[in-house]
Structure formats: C-alpha cells, structure tokens
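Q: Hi! First time doing this. I have a protein sequence and I read that you can turn it into a structure. Is that right? Here it is:
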Amino acid sequence: MAARPSTPPEDLYFPFIPTIWLMTAPSINPPQPPYLPNTAIHPIFSRTNCTDPIDPIHGIAFTPAQYDQLYPAIALASKFLTTASCLPWWVRLCLSTIAFDPATSRHHLRPVPATLATLDATRLHLLQHAPRIRIRFAHPGQYATARIYAQTTIPTRTLILITLRHDHLRYLTSGAGLARASEPQRLCFFFHVAQLLVHEAAHAIAHALPDAPLVEPYHDLSEPEAEFGSSWENSAFGGRAQALSGDCKVAKGARWGMDEEEYWRNQGTKGE
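A: Yes, that's right. Below is the predicted 3D structure, encoded as structure tokens:
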C-alpha cells in the first residue's frame, strides 16, 4: 500500500435499511478519456460522497477528519477499481445482459470479453455512476440482529447508499480502537474496510445499471451463490479474503485489526 500523503488530495474529478429513496442525484459528466491517475481516489469513494450530510436519518456521514483517517483504506479501494488486472470482472457486471440457464434454472450474466473497448466502457460506467452513490456509517443498533457489516439500500435508480456498520465508526473513534492499534492491526483494519467498500460498491453499481433486477443473478454459472460482492472477492482474491492479526494468527476480530474480545473488553461493553 502506498504511503499516505500528509494531506489527502481533494476530489480530482467530481466536486461532489431498507428504505426506498426519493432523491435526485447530481448530474455530473465524467472526464474523457475514462482514465484515473494511479494515485487518484476513485469518485465512488470521493470525499463528497462520504461527507455529504444528505438525509442523516439513514446513516452518519463521515467527518472530514474521519475521511482522512480512512484514507489508506479509501486509496486501496480505489486501486481495486482502477488496476487493469482487476477490471475484467467489472466488464461483465457493467456491460453484460442476463441469461437463463435451463440446466441449472439459474439467471446469470452473459460473458463479455475484456477488450480495450470494453475496458474503456467499463471505466466510463464506473465514473458515470459515482455521483449516485453515498457512503455512510450506520446508526447504533442498525443491522445489529442481521450481523451485516456493510449494506446497500434498496435501489430506486437515483441514489444508492453504502452503509458501513456502526462498529467501524466506534473502532475508528474510540480510544481503545484505532488509536491504540499497532501498525499490523491498522493495516488489517484498513484492508478490511477497503474490501468492504468494493464489495458493496459491486452491489451499488449493479443496482444503478439500467433495467437492473432487484434480485441479483449469478455473475458466473460456476459460482456457488448469486452474490456480486462475494463474486468480486472470489475474482480478486480467489475466495473470501481474511486479513491476519498482528501476531499472524487469524483472530475472531481480525476485521477490526485486533482481537474482538480484547476490543469489547476495552470498551467495557459486549459486542452486538
């Protein structure tokens, strides 16, 4: 992961629950050609998309300081969307049509070859849909019973919300969380957040596409489930990626960068 600059750059390209949204996203034309510098933050994860205070009822917007704290995770998530070797999976998501396989009774995306033209079209799709996405922390108790760590709202094709669990905010701001984490624990946490952001961005982009179904088809017939986020992880990592804790063992709470029991013991509360 590249070292974080002393001052995170401002957005380079865009100045910018289940609940049905009735809001209109801003209309912003993406740049041409559809390429981002290697160090750019992708507009999906722009400062504005994270700090815009629109409709606080359904989530807590990042503060500028929290965005800066998460900059390493946001930069890594951006690389997952812009690195050429990662793009073929997105080509099928953005450009394919849905087919039905009678042998398995499954709906799936038709294969789309990764050519220079389709790769450019995919980059453009990702840029075009960025203004329709917002990223939030959930309120306390939101999604707690379902054990969902990040989720997109039911889409209305206008504005889609990606929500990180409230525990992520608590770990980020607590004196017993990121502030006391070792460097390996911090890297673990940032990798986990980057992974979540792109996992949920896959759902958000799919829902934003014209004529997108409310029920996701299989990205590929060979996959075990019709779940775009998991499909992206299979493509990027070969399976469900799990970061290691500081002592190089997979801890129950490795998603936080430290042992979960230790975290909640420091909090003086029990995890949800």
